[in-house]
Amino acid sequence: MSVSGISSSSLFDLLESTSAQNPKQQVQQEIQQLGKDLSAGNLSAAQADFATLQKNDPQASTATSSTSNNPIAQAFQQLATDLQSGNLSAAQQAYSTL
């Protein structure tokens, strides 16, 4: 399964709005690396990428769970769930939704 890069600025806006400390470029790079690792089928690296993303933006999880009517937030939360459970194909699908 091929996972394309995120082109939507909505996810970046969501993440940026939750933490003014992270420059947008750093968040974009972390998300792009996550996509590369998911495309390569490297679950452990993708999990580490996601953990880094959450570490650098700890409010992202809170923001996504509190915006359940936002489809991007829902996909981000689904990605977190899929990575936590170790479901690579579902994580790839959630990432492609983003």
List the helices and strands and how they pair.
Elements: H1 9-18, H2 24-39, H3 43-56, H4 59-66, H5 71-85, H6 88-97
Helix pairs in contact: 2-3, 4-5, 5-6
Strand residue percentage: under 5%
Note the overall shape. Answer: globular
Order of helices and strands: HHHHHH
Which structural class best describes the helix and strand composition?
mainly alpha
What is the distance, rounded to the nearest whole angstrom, between the alpha carbons of the first and last residues? 15 Å
Question: From the alpha-carbon coordinates, what is the Rg to the nearest angstrom?
Answer: 12 Å
Secondary structure tally, helices: 6
How would you sum up the major sheet? none
- The pLDDT mean sits at 77
- β-strand number: 0
Low-confidence stretches: 61-65
Q: What is the helical fraction, as a range of percent?
A: over 70%
- Please identify the oligomeric state: single chain
